[in-house]
Amino acid sequence: MRITSSMIIGLMVCMVGWATPLVAQEAEEEVYTWEAFEFTYPSHWDIVIDEDVNEMRQVKLVANADEDVIVLLSLMPEFPDPDDAYWEMPAMASVSFGLGLALNLAGEHGEAAVALHYGSIELAYGPATSARFTVMKPDAEDVYALECFHFYAEEEEMAYFGMVVSKTWKGQTLDDPLYAEYAEEAFGIVRSLIIE
Questions:
Q1: Alpha-carbon span 88 to 91, nearest angstrom
Q2: How confident is the model at residue 70, as a pLDDT?
Q3: Is the pLDDT at 194 greater than 60, yes or no?
Q4: Which domains are seen in the chain, by residue range?
Q5: Which of 24, 70, 71, 134 is at a distance of 20 to 30 A from 121, taking alpha carbons?
Q6: Using CA atoms, how far apart are residues 31 and 47, in angstroms rounded to an integer?
Q7: What is the annotated signal peptide range for this record (predicted)?
């Protein structure tokens, strides 16, 4: 890819945009509760899936109709005692949670279109290692980023798994302030999730 002066200017504008706080009205918050789990989310987000599946609760929240930013949560009121392999590298549980969707998005290209790396995500209980997938099919313009995480409450023997999914496009600079706001709101939802 050839870097042009307009791309550099666009990057500078985006960097200034990221450094400058958005002047937006404070969004009203809704509270979601199910069994011992609770989180808050902006009232302009929609819960499009909220159902019991195999003794856990599946919740899908979307920021807009195009589903540019999504939060997926699996709430587990009963979680079996993890084995030794879990304690050696707990982040692998987050990898397992996100891998299926990453491969599904990759389609026929499979793992060749998926990159895995690790990061840190802030949960209500402090920072945790996240599994980050990037899905980039060679024949498609769209690119997906999946930030997968989980928390195991050992004393309560409960857990939750989740991911923030964002969609972007190859070769385009994201300069829509709403997109950045949706991403911040998604991670705010994640930070608010607690087990009471």
A1: 9
A2: 97
A3: yes
A4: 28-195 (3.40.1000.10)
A5: 24
A6: 12
A7: 1-24
Percent of the chain with pLDDT over 90: 73
Backbone angle region of 51, left / alpha / beta, with phi > 0 → left and psi within -120 to 50 → alpha: beta
pLDDT band at 163 (very low <50, low <70, confident <90, very high): very high
d(CA 164, CA 176): 18
Exposure string over 123-147, b if 16+ CB within 10 A, otherwise e: beeeebbbbbbebbbeebeebbbbb
| Strand boundaries in the chain, DSSP class E | 29-34, 37-42, 46-53, 56-62, 69-76, 114-123, 126-136, 142-153, 158-169, 194-195
Kindly state the average pLDDT of the residues 138-160.
94
User: Measured between alpha carbons, how far is 90 from 103 in angstroms, rounded to an integer?
Assistant: 21
- For residue 143, what are its two tokens? 């690119």
First CA to last CA across the chain, in angstroms?
50
pTM for the structure as a whole: 0.83
Q: Distance between CA 180 and CA 18 in Å, rounded?
A: 8
Confirm if 55 and 74 have CB atoms less than 8 A apart.
no
